Amino acid sequence: MTYTVGQVSGFAGITVRTLHHYDRTGLLTPSERSPAGYRLYSDADLARLQQILFYRELEFSLDEIQAILEDPQANALDQLRARHKLLSEQIAKLQRLVEVAEHAMEVQDTGVPLTPRERFDVFGEITFDLSYATEAAVKWHDSDGHRQALASAAAHTKEDWQQLMAEAAEWRARALAAFDAGEPADGERALELAEEHRAHLTHWFTPCPPAMHIRVADDFAADPRAFALLIPPSEQRQGLAEWLRTAVHANAARRGGGER
User: Fold this and answer.
1) What is the rounded CA–CA span in Å between residue 257 and residue 138?
2) What are the residues facing 3 on neighbouring strands?
3) Could you say which of 19, 169, 201, 238 is the most buried, measured as most Cβ atoms within 10 Å of its Cβ?
4) What is the three-class DSSP state of 39?
5) In terms of Cα–Cα distance, which of 224, 218, 225 is closest to 260?
6) Secondary structure of residue 12 in the 3-state scheme
């Protein structure tokens, strides 16, 4: 029994144009032609088409499919194993992106609906950069501390955020005054400020041992988006991020938590 190109198109769920392309490239040439010259496909042709569509679903190229079908020496099993590995990696990557998106949404969520005016009243110039939040979610995805910090942030009330930000602003004013006064980054005043910041993170977000505090400070010094969560751009000074980083490292070393 034979089938016209229109019938095969309907069976297979592909276009007539695609079947014509397969014919032109030699990937699937119909076994017969009608007296009028129309393509006619046999059962064997349909079986070959089924194989082609199987490999296409696995995203093999047409050239790869042709090599598998035409070369008796071609090792289809090896090809399938390689594709299986590639698809597994793609699935893992997509799953990771789903997790990143979920984390980023959590970071954006303060746990309480705020109008734009209320958000400004609470956070002032401190803004949450979504691109940084997404990258941080990737960087810290295995960290229990990061997950706990997100959960804590989501649970804070508007009043919590107001108190948190007020405490942060008061600490920031004293940190800027120390920096402007030329206090050494490894001096007693700077170390006290570093320890206060660590205690602030522990109280409001997640337990922050010295080794974790070092990683946080390193992030502040390396990424302006992270530092903007601590010091708004209008209040930043040249060298301030590195000064704070040095203070955190010195404080961690004093407390025996310098090893990472």
Assistant:
1) 25
2) 41
3) 19
4) strand
5) 218
6) helix
Kindly state the helix (H) or strand (E) to which residue 40 belongs, with its residue range.
Answer: strand 39-41
**DSSP string over 137-185:** HHHTTT-HHHHHHHHHHHH--HHHHHHHHHHHHHHHHHHHHHHHTT--T
Q: Do residues 57 and 63 make contact, with C-beta atoms less than 8 angstroms apart?
A: no
Q: How many CB atoms lie within 10 A of CB 143?
A: 15
Give the residue from 142, 143, 141, 165 showing the smallest Cα distance to 153.
165
What are 259's two structure tokens?
């090893």
Whole-Å CA distances, 25 to 12, 22, 39, 65, 72: 19, 5, 15, 12, 19
Per-residue pLDDT in tens (0 to 9) along the chain, 260 residues: 898 999 999 988 999 999 999 999 999 999 999 999 999 999 999 999 998 998 888 888 999 888 888 776 666 777 778 888 888 887 887 777 666 666 555 555 545 555 555 554 545 555 555 555 556 655 666 677 777 777 787 788 878 888 988 999 999 999 999 999 999 999 999 999 999 999 999 999 889 999 999 999 999 999 888 898 889 888 999 999 999 999 999 999 998 765 43
Q: What is the DSSP letter of 233?
A: G
Tokens 């090792």, residue located = 75
Residue 153 makes CB contacts below 8 A (sequence gap 6+) with: 106, 107, 109, 110, 111, 205
* Beta strand pairing call for 39-41 and 32-33: antiparallel
